[in-house]
Design goal:
about 60 residues; two-stranded antiparallel ribbon; 2 helices; alpha+beta
């Protein structure tokens, strides 16, 4: 879980001329069942991160 109290500060402006496109990286727990659990690093670009931010704003956290 990542707490996101200042989520708007993390949002990148898609209209800005970035030298390198910013990305958000999130570690997420993946569970196949109660025994097998792994963690994966997910990356989100400018446009893809919008859904991530919308989800984060629901409960002020990123769900697993």
């Amino acid at each position: 879980m990542v707490e996101c109290p200042s989520i708007y500060e993390m949002m990148a402006n898609p209209d800005f001329k970035w030298k390198k496109q910013p990305e958000i990286r999130v570690w997420r727990k993946k569970s196949e069942n109660d025994v097998d659990t792994s963690v994966e690093l997910e990356s989100f670009g400018l446009i893809e991160s919008i859904d991530l931010f919308n989800d984060a704003l629901k409960n002020n956290e990123v769900a697993n």
